[in-house]
């Protein structure tokens, strides 16, 4: 069953909605195969950490084109997986691929996790693969996600470590700058949860307990040649 889209532009993250339900989402839908391959080693680590059981009901926050949601659905053989995202384009791709793969226990909904009315205690596990760093009010967002989890439920996030530890985010800027001093990068964005103390503070304020971190060091794949890498 495929839920109807919501008016996500009117939500609490209107700027992010305009971007992801616009050019960014269209771009990622067009290059879904490359982006899935880019994150494959990270995805394997996320699956292991999530440890989804056959009867689990899983919420995938910022699911994009749905690779992590489909993986969750395959693990939750007697349960289900719901993927939510701001991008109608990426969700259309996710639904199509899920139908092609014959998955019957997966669904997708266009929604803003910060404000969406999830069923209370409706999920055993919430996961997010690089989809949880852009909330306007992260404490409110994670609090909302927490209320969607049953007592004792788990939240498993994969987020980028600090910008300077990720060559994909620094190499191009350094190459363009040459001998010139680099201006300070913009705050927040993909690296808003990179600091463990900051992330732990947000999650604790949102009501989570037992917060822990695991370092992941895996390569990022940007396609078979330079032309594809430049395009993505």
Polypeptide structure, described:
- The chain has helices at 14-20, 23-30, 32-38, 40-50, 67-75, 88-100, 138-147, 167-177, 196-205, 226-231; strands at residues 57-61, 80-85, 106-110, 123-129, 149-158.
- It is an alpha/beta fold.
- The protein has a 5-stranded parallel sheet with strand order 3-2-1-4-5, with helices on both faces.
- Helix 5 (67-75) links the parallel strand 1 and strand 2.
- Helix 2 runs parallel beside helix 6 (88-100).
- The longest helix is centred in the middle third of the chain and has 13 residues, at 88-100.
- The two termini are 31 Å apart.
Summarize the structure.
The protein has ten helices and five strands, in the order ααααβαβαββαβααα. By secondary structure, it is of the alpha/beta class.
Rounded mean pLDDT score: 84
Helix content: 25-40%
What is the alpha-carbon Rg in Å?
A: 17 Å
**Tally of extended strands?**
5
> Largest sheet, described in full?
5 strands, parallel
* Strand order across the largest sheet: 3-2-1-4-5
* Topology order in helix (H) and strand (E) letters: HHHHEHEHEEHEHHH
Strand-residue fraction? 5-15%
Structural class: alpha/beta
Low-confidence sequence ranges:
1-10
Report the span from N to C terminus: 31 Å
Spatial shape? globular
Our count of helices gives 10
């Amino acid at each position: 069953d495929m839920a109807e889209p919501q008016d996500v532009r009117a939500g609490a993250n209107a700027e992010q909605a305009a971007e992801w339900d616009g050019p960014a989402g269209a771009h990622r839908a067009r290059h879904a195969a490359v982006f899935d391959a880019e994150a494959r080693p990270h995805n394997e680590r996320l699956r292991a950490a999530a440890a989804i059981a056959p009867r689990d009901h899983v919420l995938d926050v910022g699911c994009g084109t749905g690779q992590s949601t489909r993986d969750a659905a395959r693990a939750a053989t007697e349960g289900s997986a719901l993927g939510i995202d701001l991008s109608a384009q990426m969700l259309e791709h996710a639904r199509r691929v899920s139908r092609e793969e014959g998955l019957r226990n997966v669904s997708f909904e266009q929604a803003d996790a910060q404000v969406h009315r999830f069923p209370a205690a409706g999920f055993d596990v919430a996961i997010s693969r690089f989809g949880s760093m852009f909330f306007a009010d992260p404490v409110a967002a994670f609090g909302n996600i927490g209320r969607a989890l049953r007592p004792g439920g788990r939240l498993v996030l994969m987020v980028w470590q600090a910008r300077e530890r990720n060559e994909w985010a620094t190499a191009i800027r350094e190459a363009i700058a040459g001998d010139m001093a680099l201006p300070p990068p913009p705050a927040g964005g993909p690296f808003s949860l990179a600091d463990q103390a900051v992330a732990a503070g947000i999650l604790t304020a949102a009501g989570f307990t037992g917060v822990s971190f695991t370092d992941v060091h895996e390569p990022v794949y940007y396609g078979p040649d330079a032309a594809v890498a430049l395009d993505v």
